[in-house]
Amino acid sequence: MPLFIAFEGLDGGGKSTQARLLAEALRRRGYAVTETREPGGTALGEGIRGLLLESDAPPATPLAAAFLLSAARAQLVSEVIGPALARGEVVIADRFADSTVAYQAFGYGLGRESMDRLVAIATGGLRPDVVVYVDIEPEVGLQRVQARGAGNRFDATGLAFYRRVHRGYRHLAALEPDRWVTVDGAGAPESVHSAVLRALEPILTRVAEAV
Q1: Among the CATH numbers 3.40.630.30, 3.30.360.10, 3.40.50.300, 1.10.150.130, which is that of 3-210?
Q2: CA torsion sign, 68 to 69 to 74 to 79?
């Protein structure tokens, strides 16, 4: 039975680490897992990732960035996510469409309705079965990013921007509590991973029973 899990959250929150740890744990249990990330995951998507995130890339307006992200997403759905789900695999994505809503609509103030329409076009209506939101305070996330010296263009937007994105994520999670799983990202990676597994266990049990 296919299952689509997306990890969301602010940079510095540990979502990429948690996506990787979950993929490793599920493979140990015998699941066929496809891992991917946004923007990226395909040759086209990785090229767009460089355009958007590299510090020396030409600047893009928030609306232009939304279109570029959507182009990468459309390619990812067609080339990677859709085929993997058709094979009955578990897909684990490090970010998906909710990032565009949180960052572009809430962070940059682009219209929510416009962003929702753009997301729907790019995904063809595909939505994650589960969104794992790794929640962390914006101040802590930025401190972690600065400490590892691995920031990107979005990290230069300032604390006020990250607070708006943070509020956006919490709003989205509150709207769909049956689809969103919120875990505290402030702890050590292994403790956060344990919390993710506990939260997902009922879903994974249903998937295993359906196979």
Answers
A1: 3.40.50.300
A2: positive
